[in-house]
């Protein structure tokens, strides 16, 4: 689930980068969802778009003569991935956009003079330049996705079954809903260790960035 | 072949007209330098020729063929950028190979050309390094190497030496001149430094505000500047320009005399003043003379070898009448 | 609550900056809490440190012969502020540290030559240089603190009463616990607008940063 | 007063010994230039004098008083940094006032000094701008203004012109020289550019790897370089150094002849070679002569005015015997 979200988000952000170069207002609109609180966004999605009776998607589906689809019940994991991606896409976009803008324009022009078409320029010049930024995005998202909590609680409550339960939610359930404090704490320690392993990689990256 | 013709070329950025209609012919094998103060449009002109900017109107012909709407890669020109614009994630070898890879040159041929370029540019030991591990001069050479292997019909240089220090700049200047002597390929070189222009060019194009002020060989520009701007821009130290009564004696608005055409003496002469700063270089002495009554600017005099004068000394100056430049009210040569 | 946390965090981070210059390992340790998931951190604090029976603080208090203190019950707001500050301090530290390192060393040396002592250097040179970074930190924290959700749920459940309830939690309670979807949605919209007002300021800041 | 004495000063960074024991005396009112290639320790030496670095051993005396452990602000020196180091959030006026504010100078006196400095540096119109709104040359002047108002016993300049372009550099060089003529204050100036050193200095200190290679006036260094390093470093273009059989004729390991002391002729002379690159500056011509049989490096010749030779022409060179420099195997002057 984490991998799908991050890779998907990264690719989408990369594609989205192209037309937005330097267009301030569009940029703010794109970045806005990032500042919407997780709980709020989950609620909004749940009630306004995906609700099988009153949701916008249901209305749309009806409009096209299709059966309304109870997204959260039928495809809980897919829905959550969709919501979380929607929230994190701007973050990836912002970081990759900054990275792209730091690319020396003369390098692109040199490649153009050297006979590289738009596709070659993207693969030979831009992608290597973005490599580090992409890694940072993936790492940061991994850490935060480990703790996607609010969305799960509000939308699916971990269900049906454990189909959309992740580590954080598991800890929450263990320790508070089932009052198994020991198991919860153990899970918490595991989570901290996991997060810190990723964090160490991330710090190394940022350290390299600061040096460069 | 590398004959480039610009025919009534103009360029506007929005409302701003950067280059008014401009005609220019660059012959095959020439070393042409575009020189002018910053913001004079010299880089824009180079980028128009390269195809990195589109002309607003007019025509660019390369070897007689209309290249106005050709993409940059098809024009057969190679460019060396001010920032070198090397690809930081590729080794020197891959950097040099990149244009050939894009053009689909066979691997054997690629290797042959890389070896030849690396040898002639003293880069053979650095082929497997990354650009980040090289010094400024070496990066410059890699950028030139990347241009050479394309075997272009003309090289374009955009202020290539401006990021190097003084000593290295003199060396690279010589290397580029030697490269031109060896390859005999057309080269177009942009700089704001008139010394680079004078030492390297076959033909200098002096630009100001997008207009061509004068086109000619370095010695043409030195001996017969067409206007005051060129007179003041070419030559180091700058020509002394004198207005007012003294110029009126010669029947013109302004007279100009180069520092090396003024004779200095402590005994007597036509003009007199006091020595301000005296720069003793050993081979020459440059005197900056104040209070000469000919204007507000200090006059500069060049004396061969040494002259034992100090700050505050009285000094006499006599111009070489045959080397006097005369300009009318519009600043044009008389 | 928001103001206290952010200003407190900022000041603390500024003080913490000084000794950590360039010391990589110390830096990683300082930054680690930032990557611990909110839920986990809240749980750890609740059970391991502040629990009146088994918590570390209780043991400490007993060791000194004092009455164990039930932090979360007696001072819910204070405890939450403490936990959240602990989580966000590294973030402020990281941003301010980067800003400090971008300060031209020659400026400090020039000030030293000009006769400015360490205190004058801090107020005349460093603080103006950090002004922008501090604003960014305050804005970002404001946005995120609006949505401190997990901590509140896990530690105090918004209580006692509504002493530690903030906007997000209010929405959660309204819409899910009391099934008042309308009120919850309204709250959600208010929250989004609030966040976006702050976000616009933030974007302007970042925009200026990119230009400079 | 501004007499600075360095007594057996050394500086190590960890294991690396940057400055071996070094003695130097700078007299009151002198313009001293530290010059040398990058990494020679010239900036470190300046920072030791400023107090921004601590000496490892030895003593620094300012006007006879031991200043070795004094904090920078107490030494009465003012420094102009390479990056100018202006405070970006303060106006020009506040920048200039800052050292006086720190020293507690009364407001009236502050204003008087600011006005005086701004007037002499042509900054009066810019006092309320921020440094970010100024050009490079103006920023440079603000940095100098901030130094002047402190009325220091000596000015320290750390490569102050390296961020300016060629034309502006020449102007600022003159302005700093004029400032020294006006103030008569001790100035210590660090640069890697030997032309700046030659034109500005009363006394040049040539450094290599932390060692003083030679101390002397510009003309001392030009006429009597103590070793091959100084001979090659001072003078532009560089001195031609010839080793092997030709030098043996003079009974030494190396002989050196400056480009301006070689006579060039197309008819006949002592040595012969072919012209490589010919740089025509108008006032002079620099010829780079290859295949002269005297070594691998091309020889450089300076000809006054013009000489109508081209790439590939045969040319004869005759050195002025009285201007020949002779060096032994250790590179020391004979």
Précis, in short:
The complex is a heterotetramer, with 2 copies of chain A (212 residues) and 2 copies of chain B (334 residues). Chain A is an all-alpha fold and 212 residues long. Helices cover 77% and strands 0% of the residues of chain A.
Please, could you describe this protein's structure?
Chains B, D: Residues 4-234 form the ABC transporter domain. Chains B, D: Belongs to the ABC transporter superfamily. Chain A is mostly helical. Chain A has a single domain (2-211), classed as MetI-like fold (Orthogonal Bundle), CATH 1.10.3720.10. Chain A contains eleven helices and no strands. The two termini of chain A are 33 Å apart. Mean pLDDT of chain A is 57; it is low at 17-24 and 153-167. In chain B, β7, α5 and β8 (186-191) form a beta-alpha-beta unit. With 334 residues, chain B is of the alpha+beta class. In chain B, the strands form four sheets. In chain B, strands 6-7-8-3-9-10 form a six-stranded mixed beta sheet, with helices on both faces. In chain B, strands 13-17-14-15-16 form a five-stranded antiparallel beta sheet, with no helix packed on it. In chain B, α2 crosses α3 and α2 (92-103) packs parallel to α4 (136-148). The chains are: A mainly alpha (212), B alpha+beta (334). Chains in contact: A-B, A-C, B-D, C-D. Chain A binds chain C through residues 24, 27-28, 31-32, 34-40, 43-44, 47-48, 98, 101, 143, 146-147, 149-150, 153-154, 168, 171-172, 175-176, 181, 184-185, 188, 191-192, 195-196, 198-200, 202-203, 207, 210, and chain C through 24, 27-28, 31-32, 34-40, 43-44, 47-48, 98, 101, 143, 146-147, 149-150, 153-154, 168, 171-172, 175-176, 181, 184-185, 188, 191-192, 195-196, 198-200, 202-203, 207, 210.
Notable characteristics:
heterotetramer, A: 212 residues, mainly alpha, MetI-like fold, elongated, B: 334 residues, alpha+beta, Rossmann fold, OB fold (Dihydrolipoamide Acetyltransferase, E2P), 2 domains, six-stranded mixed sheet, 27% helix, globular, ATP binding (chains B, D), ABC_transpr_MalK-like (chains B, D), ATP hydrolysis activity (chains B, D), ABC transporter ATP-binding protein (chains B, D), Mo/tungstate-bd_C_term_dom (chains B, D)
């Amino acid at each position: 689930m984490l991998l799908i979200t991050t890779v998907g988000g990264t690719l989408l952000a990369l594609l989205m980068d192209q037309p937005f170069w330097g267009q301030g207002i569009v940029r703010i609109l794109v970045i806005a969802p990032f500042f919407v609180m997780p709980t709020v966004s989950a609620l909004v999605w749940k009630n306004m778009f995906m609700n099988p009776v009153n949701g916008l998607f249901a209305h749309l589906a009806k409009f096209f003569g299709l059966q309304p689809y109870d997204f959260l019940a039928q495809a809980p994991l897919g829905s959550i991935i969709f919501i979380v991606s929607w929230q994190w896409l701007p973050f990836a976009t912002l970081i990759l956009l900054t990275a792209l803008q730091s690319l020396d324009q003369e390098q692109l022009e040199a490649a153009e003079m050297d006979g590289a078409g738009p596709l070659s320029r993207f693969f030979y010049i831009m992608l290597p330049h973005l490599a580090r930024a992409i890694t940072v995005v993936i790492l940061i998202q991994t850490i935060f996705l480990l703790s996607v909590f609010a969305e799960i609680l509000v939308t699916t409550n971990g269900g049906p079954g454990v189909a959309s339960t992740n580590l954080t939610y598991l800890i929450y359930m263990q320790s508070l809903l089932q009052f198994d404090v020991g198991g919860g704490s153990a899970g918490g320690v595991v989570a901290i260790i996991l997060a810190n392993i990723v964090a160490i990689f991330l710090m190394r990256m940022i350290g390299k960035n600061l040096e460069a | 072949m590398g004959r480039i013709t610009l025919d009534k070329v103009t360029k506007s950025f929005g409302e701003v007209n950067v280059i008014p209609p401009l005609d220019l012919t660059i012959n095959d094998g020439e070393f042409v330098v575009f020189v002018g103060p910053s913001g004079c449009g010299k880089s824009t002109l180079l980028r128009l020729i390269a195809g990195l900017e589109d002309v607003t109107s007019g025509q660019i012909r390369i070897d007689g063929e209309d290249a106005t709407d050709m993409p940059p890669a098809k024009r057969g020109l190679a460019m060396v950028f001010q920032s070198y614009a090397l690809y930081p994630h590729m080794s020197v070898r891959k950097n040099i190979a990149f244009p050939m890879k894009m053009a689909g040159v066979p691997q054997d041929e690629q290797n042959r050309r890389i070896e030849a370029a690396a040898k002639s540019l003293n880069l053979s030991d650095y082929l497997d390094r990354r650009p980040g591990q090289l010094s400024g001069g070496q990066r410059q050479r890699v950028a030139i190497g990347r241009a050479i292997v394309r075997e272009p019909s003309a090289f374009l240089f955009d202020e290539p030496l401006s990021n190097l220090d003084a000593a290295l700049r003199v060396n690279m200047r010589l290397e580029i001149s030697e490269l031109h002597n060896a390859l005999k390929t057309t080269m177009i070189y942009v700089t704001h430094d008139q010394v680079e222009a004078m030492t390297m060019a076959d033909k200098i194009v002096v630009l100001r505000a997008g207009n061509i002020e004068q086109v000619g060989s370095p010695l043409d520009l030195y001996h017969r500047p067409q206007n005051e701007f060129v007179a003041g821009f070419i030559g180091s130290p700058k020509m002394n320009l004198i207005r007012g009564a003294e110029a009126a004696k010669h029947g013109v608005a302004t007279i100009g005399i180069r520092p090396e055409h003024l004779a200095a003496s402590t005994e007597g002469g036509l003009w007199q003043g006091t020595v301000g700063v005296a720069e003793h270089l050993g081979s020459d002495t440059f005197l900056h003379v104040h209070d000469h009554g000919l204007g507000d600017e200090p006059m500069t005099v060049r004396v061969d070898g040494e002259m034992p004068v100090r700050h505050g000394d009285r000094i006499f100056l006599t111009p070489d009448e045959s080397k006097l430049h005369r300009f009318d009210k519009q600043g044009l040569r008389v």
